[in-house]
Amino acid sequence: MKYGIIGLGNHALNRIMPSIVSSGSEIFGVTTTNSEKGRTVSDQYSCKYFGTYEEMLRSDIENVYIASPNFLHYEHAMKAIRNGKNILMEKPMALRAVEAKDIMELSKEKNVRVAVGFHLRMHPSVKFVKDRISDTQSPIKLISGYWGHLSTSQRNITDDNRWWGEYEKSGGGSVMGTGVHIIDTILNIAGKFPRKVTALALPEGSMIDRSMIINMQFESFISTAYSSRETSELSNDLVIVTEGEEIRVRNFFSTSIDYEILVNGNSMQKESGGNIYAKEIAEFEKAVSGEESHIARDKDGYYVVRVIEDAHRYMSMAR
User: What domains, with CATH codes, occur in the chain?
Assistant: First the structure.
């Protein structure tokens, strides 16, 4: 498959683009506002540098990988869909739920596939967890996720990452960097949308959170998603408590595969190594081909945006 890439940040350059190539697909072209960087990357991948996004969309690429800043996701997605291109886009799908809904509706009208880069849906432990819950038929009581890391982005501000400090462009702080993955994981395991959302964040009163907790209440259980730029990777665990047992996936929330599954403290499965982003590309291409896939779809991206919107609304009313 032929891909066009918009946005050449570290994630695109270090994880997704190499995974596209290793999957056997082709990076046909790239585009970015930084023309010098764009030409350097196009030389590296022996592909075309397009001076504008519109020019790239007029080419014969089949898929667009959108890795532009958060506030441009909506515009870039809508343009790609209007040009009949399938999309793999980075999270968040959009900054507002109404925009995410627009993307969903237009993609359905134009019959193109839209997927969101929630790579942890491809984590090997997810199947174990879902199968375990299904096999035991034990009701879920709690789902909890923690993703902490020490961020240096605020100390090393460049033209490429400056937008992360502006709420109108980023949509938030830690919640948009890592919290979205915890929320999607909880929704994926729960298989439904929560009845109620509450939240707490620090610094209090700032929309660019350094740490944030989002609580979701479902019909018969609760969940909590804790993301932080100020705490180190103490565990980064996923925990599911059912009526009969505790399932803990150590180091689940990560950009690599290095985990262990414990059930009531007993080791059940562990693995280290492998490229989770290569799995993401493979699942995206399955979805494009109409096959069953584990990739997050547009509806999944929409639900995550709704949860974050509800969380911010709660905090604004609770002050």
Answer: 2-116 (3.40.50.720), 120-272+295-318 (3.30.360.10)
